[in-house]
Amino acid sequence: MHQALAAEADAPIELGPAWRHGFAALGSSFYTELRPTPLPQPHLVSLNRSLAAELGLDADLLATPEAVAAFTGNALPAGSRPLATVYSGHQFGVWAGQLGDGRAILLGGVETPAGVQELQLKGAGRTPYSRMGDGRAVLRSSIREYLCSEAMQGLGVPTTRALLVTGSPQPVRREEIETASVVTRVAPSFVRFGHFEHFSARGQEEELRQLADYVIDTFYPHVRGSEALAGNPYANLLEQVSARTAAMVAQWQAVGFCHGVMNTDNMSMLGLTIDYGPFQFLDAFVPNHICNHSDETGRYAYNRQPNVAYWNLFCLGQALLPLIGDQELALAALEPYQASFPRELESRMRDKLGLVDEQPGDRQLVEGILTLLAADRVDYPVFWRRLSAFVAGSELAPVRDLFLDRPGFDGWVSQYEARLPDGRAEAGQRMLRTNPKYVLRNHLCELAIRQAKLGDFSEVEALLSLVQSPFDEHPGHEDKAGFPPDWAAHIEISCSS
């Protein structure tokens, strides 16, 4: 079957790098091979030329009609081997059973200067795992994922990437009729917690071990020789994933990122931010903010994300327990999260404050400003950027004016100034390289999407440039660095996004 499919899939477009199919080598228990479903009249929405260069791909080639057709699913790059993977998972805390790539098709991995990177088409049509879905993505959601994955990369947060977005006039029904789109996602691997849950729940221990060995040998080979956790490689795998997840979520909290749908099938085994849907960067600092209109209980509110991540890791530990063989060992492998997360977050917050070392009282200093920000619902990105400018040499008034509780802020800033290092101006410059001027707020996405629906993709390109270098000034774009308009508070983002 594979040989016939591969021969049929060969197309004139040659990307250049050699293809590698590590996940496909696991066997048919892990996926279904299938071709994407074509879309009529595909066109290029945006091409991430900087990522293309990182991958060693020819950006001009990727912009050709032949490449646009290939990355819309109408043809296939020579050497690719399209497949949809099967996984299961907990959704909103409830076991959902079998899930899988319902609208994503993995083409395979390509050799790049940064190692093998997998290319995946999201929105490429129905698969055996689509359940009641149509297997499509819409232009709105594709633009949001494309821009946000690159925004996270620009902020230094571990993430999947996005190479290009294509569109089609094909109608797709969501809350309203929209048009189809495909985003090409890039990551070393798209393996999720849910892949392990799937085989564990079914009692398929051989497949579970095969998958774990693949992830270890490909991405964590050092755990084979580790003497930690009784030398158990599967416990050491869980420990590594726990540590990476702790670091990732600490970065989310520091930059004010709300994922919106932290199901176990949306958690990466590599500690990457994955599956951008109802995400949001905070405007006002509201700790219990819920960005997902579908999240009626607030399970994935901003301040609950750290605990949910641990809950998800506990589910992964349960899935790996048949391989680990000892419940206490599995629990010990989760300890790095509980130990690392607060340490990672405190480190990130010290960076935001321009503090170069750790001193007693730092936690109280951080908690003090967060309490003030929450009480007055102060704009989170604007506060940190103005504070950075103040430390670098600007006036205090623009920072102070953000607060209703002026005496409370005055008391805090007095303590803060006493804590600043001697090289204050240098600390301010570090802060300006830590606290972004440009954040991908929901209203900026919405404006770009509105123009894109009219066939004008210039705002998508402008935002891509800003979020890829969010700490720079970008003269002429200051309007995108200010407060959100009043109507932004009424934007509703749901799981269909």
From TrEMBL:
Mg(2+) binds at N266, D275. One of its GO terms (molecular function) is ATP binding. Its EC number is 2.7.7.-, 2.7.7.108. Its cofactor is Mg(2+); Mn(2+). Keywords: ATP-binding, Magnesium, Manganese, Metal-binding, Nucleotide-binding, Nucleotidyltransferase, Transferase. It holds the Pfam family SelO. The active site is at D265. It is an enzyme of class 2 (transferase). It comes from the Bacteria. InterPro entries: SelO (IPR003846). ATP binds at G100, G102, R103, K122, D134, G135, R185, R192, D275. It catalyses: L-seryl-[protein] + UTP = O-(5'-uridylyl)-L-seryl-[protein] + diphosphate; L-tyrosyl-[protein] + UTP = O-(5'-uridylyl)-L-tyrosyl-[protein] + diphosphate; L-seryl-[protein] + ATP = 3-O-(5'-adenylyl)-L-seryl-[protein] + diphosphate; L-threonyl-[protein] + ATP = 3-O-(5'-adenylyl)-L-threonyl-[protein] + diphosphate. Nucleotidyltransferase involved in the post-translational modification of proteins. It can catalyze the addition of adenosine monophosphate (AMP) or uridine monophosphate (UMP) to a protein, resulting in modifications known as AMPylation and UMPylation. Belongs to the SELO family. NCBIfam families: PRK00029.1. This is Protein nucleotidyltransferase YdiU.
